[in-house]
Write a structure and sequence with these properties.
Helix content is 5%, strand content 36%. By secondary structure, it is mainly β.
C-alpha cells in the first residue's frame, strides 16, 4: 500500500504516513470527546519515524491536555489532528477523518468505553474495552478528571 496523505480542514497543514499503521480504534475518553466536540474520535496510530509533515508544520499548535499528553491542531482552521504522549513514545496518533482515502487498517475496537456518552447507541459489533482493559495498559497512567468519575 502506498503512503497515506492527509490535511486539515483549510489545507494549510499537510502530512504523509508510510504504512503500516500500529492501530485504528474509536476512543470514547473524556479528553478526546471534549477536544473534538464529538461522541468519540477514531484514531490511527503510526510510528513517528513513518510520519512526515508536508506543509504547515509551523501552523501546528500543541496543547498539553494532561500531564503526559498533548494534542496538535491547525492554528488557522482549528482542526484537532494529532495526539502524542510520553505514555506511548515514538508514536503519533492521527484523527482518521484527516487522512484521505483508504488506509491499511479498519477500526478494531471502541476504547475507554466506560467513559462513553449515554445518548449514543452504537450499531457495530466491535469490542468495547473499558479503560482498565489490559490492551490499554500503557494509557492507564492517565488520571481521569474528577468531574467524570
Amino acid at each position: 500500500m502506498s503512503n497515506f496523505q492527509g490535511r486539515c480542514l483549510c489545507g494549510s497543514v499537510r502530512f504523509s504516513v508510510q504504512p503500516p499503521s500500529i492501530f485504528c480504534v474509536h476512543c470514547h475518553c473524556h479528553f478526546c470527546r471534549t477536544a473534538h466536540g464529538a461522541a468519540f474520535v477514531t484514531w490511527v496510530g503510526v510510528p513517528e519515524k513513518q510520519f512526515s509533515m508536508q506543509a504547515g508544520d509551523d501552523l501546528v499548535t500543541w496543547y498539553s491536555s494532561s500531564e503526559h499528553s498533548r494534542r496538535g491542531f491547525c492554528s488557522q482552521c482549528g482542526s484537532t489532528m494529532f495526539y502524542a504522549s510520553t505514555l506511548c513514545p515514538g508514536e503519533i496518533h492521527i484523527a482518521r477523518p484527516y487522512i484521505y482515502g483508504e488506509i491499511d487498517l479498519k477500526p478494531v475496537a471502541h476504547v475507554f468505553f466506560d467513559q462513553h456518552v449515554q445518548w449514543l447507541k452504537l450499531g457495530d459489533e466491535l469490542p468495547k474495552l473499558d479503560g482498565d482493559h489490559p490492551m490499554l495498559e500503557k494509557y492507564q497512567a492517565v488520571e481521569s478528571p474528577s468531574f467524570i468519575r
